[in-house]
Automatic annotation (TrEMBL):
It comes from Mycoplana azooxidifex. The keyword Isomerase applies. GO terms for molecular function: L-rhamnose isomerase activity; metal ion binding. This is L-rhamnose isomerase/sugar isomerase. Its EC number is 5.3.1.-, 5.3.1.14. The keyword Amino-acid biosynthesis does not apply. Keywords: Isomerase, Manganese, Metal-binding. Gene3D superfamilies: Divalent-metal-dependent TIM barrel enzymes (3.20.20.150).
Length: 429
């Protein structure tokens, strides 16, 4: 069942199919001169997938306010429909990553059925112990898995176990744990004791992880804590994954590092030591801005994908990262932003596939720094849009997802049933 009418997609595609065929043929000729088979690249791009975060389809907010958008999803079923729209048009997002308890998931079989009917599966589950849920006994104001009080830690552990249980019923295979635990002032907590308590709590969760599951810990330098954060960087994250065991991996959210940090190198290190679990793709200018992927620094995104393709092609041991988006939208229609981001990760992947790896290795051997970096630039400069568009078109999606989405008038249609939810203070995510 398609939410966006196939007729609308076909009518929009018909306007562009001729130009696309000619652009694709032209790019094919150019790539052939570089020894690259465009169809082979297109096939790999067509098989690429990135998960949509359930929390991304609603309008987020700034730290100060939330401005509700029209037709925002009212519940998890509406969210799944919005996610399905993204997949129908981009053909790149067949799974959804849930966040508990933001997503109220009381009827799991209905949810699973809804997903199946829309052609969507469930990616990593996300727990939330960084905000208090309505009726919860112990507050997370001073932390969760690393809290000084054992009962609070226990509550946070139980919540994570519940997320695993929910995910099992939905067919998910991973749990992502991000905690906001940390301090605002020097002296507020003991670094070592906090980390010990965190590790002990994570070990308790790990014990409940099914054999075919993975647990991802997500580091973030700061926010909401502004002096120290318990899981603050990839070094600490790597220690966690090592301490926990073979099913534990590190998750890299692109917005969770200091400005100018060499994220692609972190990615390479984690791959080398078999601990790269997955990504939260987004982009940032200053901090954890959660902007559309590739909207600020597409070259950095490409450099990350350059490492990923390198690992894929050399069949690095244990390399199977989960790819997910993690964004927040305040001034755009979330569906449009998520489609753009899905397309941007596909673009970076396609560009990564174009890197002439033999030439690059040769330049590295010869210490030809200029030509080595030009080799990357040549791939990055290639306009791969015809490859992406053709992969979408042949997969039943839209040549131009945003134009087709607008032509379908989806947001106005759902707005009739979905009243705007009042604004209020923003959430920091
Ligand atoms: C924290 C984070 C984490 C949360 C999400 C909502 O900043 O990146 O992944 O689960 O935002
Ligand atoms: Mn994240
Ligand atoms: Mn974040």
């Amino acid at each position: 069942m398609n939410i966006i009418s196939k007729d609308v997609i076909a009518a929009e595609n018909a306007k562009q199919a001729h130009a696309l065929a000619s652009d694709y043929a032209h790019l094919g000729e150019q790539l052939a001169r570089r020894g690259i088979d465009i169809d082979a690249v297109k096939r790999r791009v067509a098989n690429y997938a990135v998960a949509v975060p359930s929390w991304g389809v609603g309008t987020g907010g700034t730290r100060f306010a939330r401005f509700p958008g029209e037709g925002e999803p009212r519940n998890i079923f509406d969210k799944l429909e919005d996610c399905a729209v993204i997949h129908e048009l981009t053909r790149a997002t067949p799974t959804v990553s849930l966040h508990i308890p933001w997503d109220k998931v009381s009827d799991l079989s209905a949810l699973k059925e809804k997903g199946a009917a829309l052609g969507l599966g469930f990616d990593a589950m996300n727990s939330n112990t960084f905000s208090d849920a309505p009726q919860q006994e112990h507050s997370y104001k001073y932390g969760s898995l690393s809290h000084a009080n054992a009962a609070t830690r226990r509550q946070a552990i139980e919540h994570n176990i519940e997320c695993i249980e929910i995910g099992r019923k939905l067919g998910s295979k991973a749990l992502t744990v991000w905690i906001g635990d940390g301090t605002n002032f020097p002296g507020q907590a003991d670094f070592t004791r906090s980390f010990e308590r965190y590790l002990e709590a994570m070990k308790a969760i790990y014990k409940h992880l099914p054999d075919d599951w993975r647990i991802f810990s997500e580091h973030k330098m700061y926010e909401p804590a502004f002096y120290s954060t318990v899981v603050q960087d990839w070094g600490t994250n790597y220690l966690i994954a090592k301490e926990l065991g073979d099913k534990a991996y590190c998750l890299v959210d692109l917005g969770h590092h200091a400005p100018n940090v060499n994220i692609e190198m972190i990615v390479a290190r984690l791959i080398q030591f078999g601990k790269l679990g997955g990504f939260h793709f987004n982009d940032s200018k200053y901090g954890d801005d959660d902007l559309d992927t590739g909207s600020i620094d597409p070259y950095r995104l490409f450099l990350v994908f350059n490492e990923l393709v390198n690992a894929e092609e050399r069949k690095a041991e244990g390399f199977a990262p989960a790819h997910m988006l993690d964004q927040s939208h305040n001034v755009t229609d979330p569906i449009e932003s998520l489609m753009r981001s899905a397309t941007e990760v596909c673009r970076a992947y396609a560009q990564g596939l174009l890197v002439d790896r033999a030439a690059l290795a040769g330049y590295q051997e010869e210490h030809d720094a200029l030509m080595a970096s030009e080799t990357l630039k040549t791939a990055f400069r290639t306009d791969v849009e015809p490859i992406l568009a053709m992969a979408r078109h042949e997969g039943g999606g839209a040549i131009d997802p945003v134009a087709t989405y607008r032509a379908a008038g989806y947001r106005a249609k759902v707005a009739a049933d979905r009243p705007a939810v009042a604004g209020g203070s923003g959430g920091i995510v």
